[in-house]
Write a structure and sequence with these properties.
The complex is a heterodimer of chains A (119) and B (113). Chain A is mainly β and 119 residues long. Chain A is 0% helix and 54% strand. In chain A, strands 2, 4, 5, 9, 10 and 11 form a six-stranded mixed sheet that branches. The model of chain B has no long low-confidence stretch (mean pLDDT 93). The chains are: A mainly beta (119), B mainly beta (113).
Chain lengths: 119, 113
């Protein structure tokens, strides 16, 4: 079974500073990985996804993430934080082959990281 | 394009009451799912469906019921609400392929007193 661990439930940065949100996954088969963002009182929006075409993935709003198989990581970064980046961020994993039955298609989410940006 | 639509946005129930959370999508997605979101616990899968007439349990299915009679609709039923079911509920759908992202509704905030 796949799983995701997000290191740090809260991350605080200053405006203009580097944003680094950590995500490690566990999967016995090649994973597909996603980052979502949730603004207050809204649903989740897709930031970016890794689908094995390239290890460095660029997403919306200046975010990017790098897939590192040797480290089983998919950390999210942004060179310069903006106040509007304050939100909760979720890493998620989907496996490429089903375990059997109707279990395919499920995404497993990490616990989330709340990003605070200070002026 | 409406995407995934959830109703209601807010609901307050008394313990023991039943209700149905509605979810509809207009993207012709076969896969639909329900998650609950609780502080510090991320999103936990309640039930999911891979097509009309096919449903399966997720991580936390107890106390919830689902059915899928059409591709578009995937309602979630609370049979006898309990305070532990106070949460924010999200419906989500995705297209075919393991690299397809989930598309989320805006959520239903449920309080059970």
């Amino acid at each position: 079974a796949q799983s995701v661990t997000q290191l740090g439930s809260h991350v605080s940065v200053s405006e203009g500073a580097l944003v680094l949100l950590r995500c490690n996954y566990s999967s016995s088969v090649p994973p597909y990985l996603f980052w979502y963002v949730q603004y207050p009182n809204q649903g989740l929006q897709l930031l970016l996804k890794y689908t094995s075409a390239a290890t460095l993935v660029k997403g919306i709003n200046g975010f990017e993430a790098e897939f590192k198989k040797s480290e089983t990581s998919f950390h999210l970064t942004k060179p310069s934080a903006h106040m509007s980046d304050a939100a909760e961020y979720f890493c998620a994993v989907s496996v490429s082959r089903p375990a059997g039955g109707t279990s395919y298609g499920k995404l497993t989410f990490g616990q989330g990281t709340i990003l605070t940006v200070h002026p | 394009n409406a995407g995934v639509t959830q109703t209601p946005k807010f609901q307050v129930l008394k313990t023991g009451q039943s209700m149905t959370l509605q979810c509809a999508q207009d993207m012709n997605h076969e896969y639909m799912s329900w998650y609950r979101q609780d502080p510090g616990m991320g999103l936990r899968l309640i039930h999911y469906s891979v097509g009309a007439g096919i449903t399966d349990q997720g991580e936390v299915p107890n106390g919830y019921n689902v059915s899928r009679s059409t591709t578009e609709d995937f309602p979630l039923r609370l049979l006898s609400a309990a305070p532990s079911q106070t949460s924010v509920y999200f419906c989500a759908s995705r297209g075919t392929g393991y690299n397809s992202p989930l598309h989320f509704g805006n959520g239903t905030r449920l309080t059970v007193t």
